[in-house]
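Onboarding guide, step 5: your first structure request.
Type a short instruction followed by the sequence, for example:

Predict the 3D structure of this protein.
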Amino acid sequence: MLSGQQARRLALSLPEAAEQDHHGRPSFRVAGRIFATLWDEGHMNVMIDEDGIRTATQAHPETCAEAWWGKRLAAVRVRLAAADEPLLLDLLTDAWERRAPKRLAP
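The system replies with C-alpha cells like these:
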C-alpha cells in the first residue's frame, strides 16, 4: 500500500525527474516530457506503451486499470492502496525510459 507522497518520491527518484503542475495535477517529467501524473492521492497514471498497459492490467487487475484519453489508450492507472513499491517503481522506470533522452539511458 502506497500513499501519494510515496508515489511522488518514487517518481522523483529517477534521474533528472522533475515535478510540474499539469492542469491542476502534479506531473512528473524528464527533459520536459511527462511520464506520470498523480491523478489524485489514491491514483497515479503512468505513461507506458500499450503492450505494457495491457500486460500490467492483466497481471495486476486489482491494482492497474487502463486509462484512456479519447480513443487512445494512454496510461496505466495504478491504485496506490493496492500497489507495492517494486511494482510502481517498475512501471515508472518503464515510462521514464520512454521519455528520457538517450544521454540518460543506462
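Each response can be followed by summary notes, for example: The first strand starts at residue 18 and ends at 22.
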